[in-house]
Design brief:
single chain, mainly alpha, 2 helices
Length: 85
């Protein structure tokens, strides 16, 4: 830690002088050009994602499916009990 009173330990855990950051090498924004195939790649990814979602939803059971199956099983159980009597 620097003993000079004009330096303070700031919120961002860096030394500050008079309210200004004292960074010798500030971070700069870096822009990288996108490849020409970016839009095609994004379309391909979107199609693959939709296909996977469709496959998963075909394999999954919704709450309404579960409720219907539960009700059917409950009715079948009651019918079997009535048949036994």
């Amino acid at each position: 830690m620097v003993d000079d009173p004009k330096y303070k330990y700031g919120k961002n855990h860096g030394y500050r002088q008079g309210g200004k950051n004292v960074n010798k090498n500030p971070i700069r924004c870096v822009r990288v050009p996108l490849p020409e195939s970016f839009e095609e790649d994004m379309k391909k990814i979107k199609k693959e994602r939709e296909k996977l979602i469709e496959e998963i939803s075909d394999k999954c059971m919704t709450a309404s499916d579960f409720a219907r199956i539960y009700q059917d099983n409950k009715l079948n159980t009651k019918k079997k009990e009535n048949y036994k009597e």
